[in-house]
Amino acid sequence: MKIKKFISISLTLIFFYYIIKFIVPILFGSFYYLLIFIFFIIFAYKSPFYFLILLTIFYEKFFQIIFLWIPFWLWADLTIVLVSAGVFVQFLKNGFHLNLNTDNYYFKYILLILSVVTFSIFFGSYLFLGEPPKSLIFRPRPFFLYFTYLYLCLAELNQDQIRKYIGFIVFTSVGISLLLIIDAKLLGGFVIFKYAYYNGVSGFRGGNPRIVVYTFMTIFTYFYLLSTIRFTQNTLIRLIAILSFIIVGYQLVFVLMTRQTLLTIFLTTLFFLLNLKSLIPKTFVFCTIMAGLFLAATFFAINPDKLEETAYYKIIEKTRIESSYKEKGNLARRINGIKFFYPYFKKTFFMGIGMTSVKNKNSPENIGLENGYVFSDLGIFSIIYRFGLLSLIVIAIILNRVFRDLTFIQKNVGTQQKILANALIYLFINNIIFLPTTKIFFTEGPFYYGIFFYIIYKLKSDIIPQEKQAFPALSYNQKLCMSG
Questions:
Q1: What does the pLDDT look like over 387-441, one tens digit per residue?
Q2: Are 222 and 72 in contact (CB under 8 A)?
Q3: Which of 167, 179, 290, 269 is closest to 217 using CA atoms?
Q4: pTM of the model
Q5: Per residue, what are the HEC states of 197-249?
Q6: Alpha helix segments (H runs only) across 303-414
Q7: Does residue 97 sit in helix, strand or coil?
Q8: Dihedrals φ, ψ of 278, to 5°?
């Protein structure tokens, strides 16, 4: 426990070194930023639940609707500042005691992820590739968002607050999806979400507006609504969930239109449907899907001109053409990119090149960019090349624990917790089901993974004391075996 406390305090000091050196001058350079910062700090101390909601809204850049004079690149850095400040005020509130249980292994996993990142940056980026010393602190800063988990542990959010937060996520995801549909299909795009267009996270796909907003949690909501439809016994709630699912599903399919996301959602949804245990719902769902596909095929067979006008026909044609090129096209460029970066990875003795800077003209990422290869497009290879083979082992260890815990939770809780656990299971499956595109734990979503780790930890930790009262003489592994 002393080692854990020492590491945590050391990391907190690093956070504030980063804040003082890089962020505070920016904050004090603008009165607006300083007011926002003070506002968040008050909520971080007084109301952790509302601070988490505000933090989510801030992390999502106010859903690209409101402009706050903050440059696009600065949002993530300011979120790190707010998370770090939140951790500090909770440390202060708890008398600088961690108050973490001895079985809090998700915190250890976060420290393990940070250790792998730091290790690869020190040996790969600094020693082998000659990156500047400041990269040791500056480059891994996105992973500091994992400490949302530590903030929640110190704040001790209860299950009721967790349910309210999930309700906020689902409500906003459905609302944002509806607004995205209106913006893209009725207003021509980039009217409601005009700052998404300015920030360069959107464009056109198949001739239609493609607006990228709130994607990570919208995909979670997609599986949460599926799980609600599956488990809830309340007819009204099920009807609302079905209508909301249609809105979210339509937005993901016809507004987001990201090929990788669509493929992973399709495969995961198919897996979800195949795992339905009740024969009648399974038959009804598959019959409905087949009937819809048959009607669509019949319509386009009668009206072939209509088919060629659809966005997806254009996307499929574009994908087919790109796949036929040996040197051009997205697929070929990614394969060639994997080959291009491999010598740099080998040069680090497979420890990983770390997070090199695109601004350094001698860095692999900058050289690759000059040759038309974007490092972040490499999917799972971007993880392997950056953080070495050790990162795959860490991912496997964490996923094994996540799926074990979520399966255990599902078997020992009520309907609401079962829905949440089931949604998280399929969210993690969705993140890994198409392995070449996987970007889990070491690239995307550390802010949300930190929150989900806490939810899993909290749900499971609330079950164990109840079981200890019922089976005081049994170990956790024995109880896990008894639960199936």
A1: 888 888 999 999 999 999 999 998 887 888 999 999 999 999 999 888 777 888 8
A2: no
A3: 167
A4: 0.84
A5: HHCCCEEEECCEEEECCCHHHHHHHHHHHHHHHHHCCCHHHHHHHHHHHHHHH
A6: 304-309, 311-324, 330-347, 364-370, 380-410
A7: coil
A8: -80, 130
